[in-house]
Prior knowledge:
The complex is a heterodimer of chains A (296) and B (356). Chain A has 296 residues and is α+β, with helices and mostly antiparallel strands. Chain A has helices at residues 100-108, 113-116, 156-161, 233-262, 279-295; strands at 8-12, 22-27, 30-36, 42-46, 49-51, 53-56, 59-63, 88-96, 131-139, 142-153, 170-180, 184-192, 203-212, 218-226.
Amino acid sequence: MxxxxxxxxxxxxxxxxxxxxxxxxxxxxxxxxxxxxxxxAFSVQAPHGARxxxxxxxxxxxxxxxxxxxxxxxxxxxxxxxxxxxxxRVHDQLLVRAxxxxxxxxxxxxxxxxxxxxxxxxxxxxxxxxxxxxSLEQAGHAVTAITELSSMPTNGLFQLLWERGTPPKVSDxxxxxxxxxxxxxxxxxxxTHVGAPRADGPTIETIHWLTPETETTTHYFWVATRxxxxxxxxxxxxxxxxxxxxxxxxxEPMIEAIQRQxxxxxxxxxxxxxxxxxxxxxxxxxxxxxxxxxxx
Amino acid sequence: xxxxxxxxSPRFLRNxxxxxxxxxxLATGTLLPRRLLDxxxxxxxxxxxxxxxxxxxxxxxxxPLSMGRLMADGSLQCGYHGLQFDAGGRCTVNPxxxxxxxxxxxxxxxxxxxxxxxxxxxxxxxxxxxxxRIPDYSLFSRQPHEGYRTFDGMFTVQAxxxxxxxxxxxxxxxxxxxxxxxxxxxxxxxxxxAWQEGDTTVHSNRWFDEGPCPAAMEVAxxxxxxxxxxxxxxxxxxxxxxxxxxxxxxxxxxxEAGMNTWSAHFLTPETEGSTHYFYNxxxxxxxxSAEVDEGIRAMVLHAFLQEDRPMLEAIQRDMGGRDLWSMxxxxxxxxxxxxxxxxxxxxxxxxxxxxx
Lengths: 296, 356
């Protein structure tokens, strides 16, 4: 699968690039130099000239298409992930040795959480009143996978973040993952007492900016912001380590094994057996394919 | 039964038994992933002791099933989204959505048989899997109280299995490549004979009647300088099962009175350019000594890993995927066993393709 070129791709975090510094990164197979001059202005140098750069929402961005078409308004609004009152944030990055589309598939189908992530899922059998509702919404090119779990055993992450009183044994949990083309995802997830409104329990919002390094490797930038224990650095570190451990120790080995299994073959040509939970990931694949086709 | 998703290599015979693992590698409950004939396979032993093999790929999102877990009912649960498969490869549980099992949710299951201390796998037409076609290696199962002791192991070599067959059938190479351990000055006077037996067996025998004992034998068969008869008899069974009988006896004495050892060299292609090498060693002395097992293992592994492997991997790199015959090799008399085995293997593979 080719890349969408007329798009913004995240290339790092502002604090990684001091005034007067240079940093290199490969994006869509192209080696880039990220530069910040003495006055603090950010720019990007490619082998054959400059590429439009942008500093926004606590991240550095590069436009990989026609420079004349670079439009900052095309970047979705990720301001919720910036530092704001009543919330605190942690961020990190990793390199995944797999095609970026496999990482998107993984994020748009959170039914894997119970099998792959002990800290984020529930090992206990849900009680008889457990209800799961999974649905799909599309607005423009954005695809959202909506997961609502009622009366679910409270997972390790929300037990950790529960601030007011003892965490309930079972809670209502939501996980709404929105994908924006080509490879930017926003997850709103939280838990409450059964039937209680959103503000009752902790919320953690995360963004997942995936930047293809090559056809088979992906830069994975992520930010997590939460509204509980905002002054607690130890909990911040537990959240960072918990998410990093899930990505590195659980998602990445599985996604990389799948990459090896596919050995460069096309996903649909391998005739995958599809389940009802694959709707959002398949929709996002179709939207992205269409956009890449239109760009040609 | 779904078709293998990768086209099968024309270099592999499919309607035959290969060794997938030694039985000792499969403890109950472990999932053993292994690439065989360029297909990912997962092997496991259920709580009743039966061994099973499936294509190591969930048909949903292609996760290796070996990264999943074995359930109490003997089925395999995929570690990604929880689909469960029975030993026949049928999906029995879909925990997602309304739980409907999609019709196409089926994984290739391979016939497997546990016999002669090995797990054998059939990667061709399952209807033709016939366990009576496994050659007789019952010697492996003989126990110390019956006068025999066997240990086994495996490693993987980055060279085509055909090159391994050539190397094993060529009994002249130990004199040079393994000069320190297996060589003897009397090898220069050695006789050599290669012949075919039936449709699937080739023998390659080398022996001398009188000469100094090779150093590696001297340890277990002290000669005090007396001359010995020494033989190395290799039997190849298609497609890549080699069994070596090595012995030494005082010249003029019956062979049974001397020292006899046997070693299996069972080759299973991992890919076209790499080979799983399953070895074992059977002896009739030191029947209770694990220490002697490890001493022999160290010596044998030294020959395989420090002497044979670098040579074969260098040849593999030099050949770069080209066919041996197209490179017009110069053949010596000691190559006749290897050449016969290669020709027979090519004929069997061609016959399989003609029938398909």
